[in-house]
Specification:
By secondary structure, the chain is mostly helical. The chain is about 70% helix and about 0% strand. Helix 4 runs parallel beside helix 7.
Length: about 210
């Protein structure tokens, strides 16, 4: 998952509607960072965004739907995987991009808040799943290209390989609460690549 862009300072063209959405999503992210999902209130978001409460309630309805729209926006802002020319560099870039995202004070706090919310709120879980499904699919194209070049065995499951790169990073971030640094990220990429070259990711998940 490529380093995800901060929402701050981005306003899509399209007039007042687009500006209102950008302001509300910016405020949503600010509130998530400061208060977490449990402290995310529609009224506070509206006040912070300088938008009428009725507009926020009418367009989004619930705090969970604000988070869903925020995750959609973050996914749309994310840069595509780089054309590195080789699967070694591509997986390393993937690991380092995840590292950059989770260690970013603002973006990392956003993800941690949504991950925490996803454990008990189905709408938050759906938003998080949609975000990562999209990013994994984009990076899986890099794996498919590597298979086409003969760098990886035929039948290598791209999404599963991409998940394997970032899984150790998120385990440390969310479960054990350990620091995640560049050494950890590069080792995760190298180990996933070694497993892929040995055929560990051939076939469908669970097959």
């Amino acid at each position: 998952m490529e380093r995800e862009s901060r929402l701050a300072g981005t306003v899509r063209p399209g007039g007042r509607t687009a500006k209102v959405r950008a302001a509300v999503l910016q405020a949503t992210q600010d509130e998530l960072v400061e208060r977490g999902f449990d402290g995310l209130g529609m009224d506070q978001v509206a006040a912070r965004a300088g938008v009428g409460k009725t507009t926020v309630y009418r367009r989004w309805g619930t705090a969970a739907r604000l988070v869903t729209d925020l995750m959609t926006e973050l996914a749309e802002q994310s840069a595509p995987p780089p054309d590195t020319g080789g699967i070694d560099d591509a997986l390393r870039a993937n690991a380092l991009s995840v590292l950059g995202a989770v260690n970013d004070p603002r973006l990392g706090a956003t993800f941690q808040a949504v991950i925490a919310a996803a454990t008990c709120n189905e709408e938050a879980a759906t938003a998080l799943r949609a975000f990562y499904t999209r990013r994994i699919a984009e990076w899986a194209e890099v794996v498919d290209a590597a298979v086409g070049r003969g760098e990886l065995p035929e039948g290598t499951d791209g999404p599963e390989l991409i998940r394997a790169v970032s899984a150790p990073l998120y385990y440390r971030l969310v479960v054990t609460r350990e620091p995640v640094d560049e050494v950890v990220a590069e080792r995760a990429a190298a180990r996933a690549l070694a497993a892929a070259r040995a055929g560990a990711f051939i076939g469908a998940p669970g097959g």
